[in-house]
Amino acid sequence: MDQILKERDRLLQRIARVFGLSFTVVSLLCLLIPEAVPATTYGFVLPLYAVLGFTQYRIGLSRSPIWLFLALASGVAAILAISITSQGLTQSSFSAIAQLGAASLSSIAVVLTTTLRRVAVLVVSFIVVGASTIVATSDWQPALHTSGLLILGWLLPTITGIWITASVPQAARRIASIGRAHRAERQASELEAQRRQSARLLHDTVLATLTLLAHSGVGVAPDALRQQAADDAKLLRQLRLGATPTPQSSGQYNLEPVEETVLGTTLESVKQRFGRMGLEVSWHGTGQVLLPSDVLDAFLLALAECLENVRRHSGVTEAHVTIVDDATTVRAMITDAGVGFTLDDVDSARLGFKESVVGRLKEVGGHARLFSAPGSGTTVVLEVPR
């Protein structure tokens, strides 16, 4: 949103620059009409026009209020200089003053609508310019007519600034809403595609094996049936760890060796699995740790259960996992900034954490520790031997 607001301010600045410079040039052209003002007047007003044009150009590049004040001062000075140095206003000199007061200087209103402080500056600026213009043209037309012209001239850029100031954040919120809807739709599509792929994979492998077993393995040698069941067991292990085996042909899938696996090769699959379910997991620390297959299974499945608890119960969509190791132990610390809970309030009959985390780690010589408090998030520390 901050970037959107910066772009909005740049847009307002560019509009003010184009608006102001355009009418400054028109005012100067009116002044350059022959016999519009005495020749001596040009010596006073042309430098002021140059300063006004330069400051209006700078307004398009910078939000510094100094350029607004310089534009206002040079413009008011030019109005008064035209009126004082002329022996009487002509139609051309009156038009030059009107263009300055009601159009060129009113361009600053475009950038003075974003905050209450700037709106206050806008009101003061209008009063100063309005009073100067009315005094300068008092001999040419009634003050009431000049006031109407000034109000109309300042109203247009003010409305433009207010409209852009209010519209851009609304557009940004709608874009963000569309982005969230797109991500939700994409996530749902990915989950559906994953479910279909998993169904096909299980149909081609595990269910086919179970069908053979249900028919007593008719037509298949016992050794071949045992090998097929072993391959299916390896496939199920990969699925539990979040991997997506690649099919080679119907009923055959690539499988990784399971004797010893690098921890880092499996962490990414767990991260992607929970990312598809709406939980962003940030990994910290090392991932290049070799673990025996049974220890890796227990460690990652316990870690996945902790992340599942974060997804279901924490009320947040982000978790952090820090992996560290030493000569004898690999540790994972899972933290979230969610609602937390009182440890004594956990029902002892619930088996999720007790069995899926603590019990699973104990089987391989590891253990788990849990820390939480209401409103302070939750931290779980998992440890397994190398």
Can you describe this structure?
The protein is an alpha+beta fold and 386 residues long. It folds into three domains: 2-174; 205-253, no CATH class; 260-385, Histidine kinase-like ATPase, C-terminal domain (Heat Shock Protein 90, 2-Layer Sandwich), CATH 3.30.565. 63% of the residues lie in helices and 12% in strands. It contains eleven helices and nine strands. The protein has helices at residues 2-31, 39-59, 65-85, 91-104, 116-136, 143-204, 206-214, 222-240, 263-276, 293-314, 352-362, and strands at 247-249, 252-253, 260-262, 280-285, 290-292, 318-325, 329-336, 367-372, 378-385. The strands form three sheets. Strands 4-6-7-9-8 form a five-stranded mixed beta sheet, covered by helices on one side. A two-stranded antiparallel sheet has the order 1-2. The chain has a two-stranded antiparallel sheet with strand order 3-5. The longest helix has 62 residues, at 143-204. The radius of gyration is 37 Å and the shape is rod-shaped.
